[in-house]
Amino acid sequence: MKRPKIKEVIVVEGKKDTEKIHLAVEASTIETQGMALEEETLALIEHAQKKHGVIVFTDPDYPGESIRKKINARVPGVKHAFIRVDEGLPKHKGTLGIEHASIESIHEALAGLYEISETDDLIISKRFLRKHGLMGDKDSKKLRMKLGEELRIGYTNSKQLQKRLSLFNISEEKVLATLDKLGEAGENE
């Protein structure tokens, strides 16, 4: 099977992530070499964004999220790809990461890219999140986890969910359609 070609440069955390990405697609990568994110690496990511565009594709864990935030703060306009936590689990031993994801999971993540909204406006209200069981309910955490996995935006607490949905321009309609797909649609009064 021919590997799809990706024009953007994909930012990953390490060498094993690059190896896995190259099995899935034809693309150039930049490795962050962990959370520290050297100035030289950030400058390289900035240059890549100007020339080709950048896709940030980090592990679905705290260090991966931290790297994502640092890049976002420095390099506007990058795109984001996410795998679910279960897709990044090692088969035997090791740590959570892109290197453990299947080729299919990588293709799905790269097909469902998110771009950061330029506005700081929150497009989803806390009232909406409460109404649909995503905050303030005993099962809210579980529902947020399912929603985050289905939308491929990672796990968030309720405050982070409101920000992330707005950040990625995900509408109330999209949230409701996703909850419906999950069989979780309903309203709390």
Features:
189 residues; single chain
Helix content: 40-55%
DSSP summary, beta strand count: 5
The number of helical runs is: 8
Which structural class do the helices and strands define? alpha/beta
The biggest beta sheet is recorded as: 5 strands, mixed
Shape: globular
Q: What does the average pLDDT come to? A: 90
End-to-end separation: 51 Å
Radius of gyration: 17 Å
Percentage of residues in DSSP E strands: 5-15%
Strand order of the largest sheet: 2-1-3-4-5
List the helices and strands in order: EHEHEHEHEHHHH
Residue stretches low in confidence (pLDDT < 50, at least 5 long) are none
Structure description:
- With 189 residues, this protein is of the alpha/beta class.
- Helices cover 44% and strands 7% of the residues.
- It has helices at residues 15-24, 39-51, 62-74, 103-111, 126-131, 140-151, 158-167, 172-181, and strands at 9-12, 29-31, 54-56, 79-80, 114-115.
- The protein has a 5-stranded mixed β-sheet with strand order 2-1-3-4-5, with helices on both faces.
- Helix 1 links the parallel strand 1 (9-12) and strand 2.
- Helix 1 (15-24) packs across helix 4 (103-111).
- The model has no long low-confidence stretch (mean pLDDT 90).
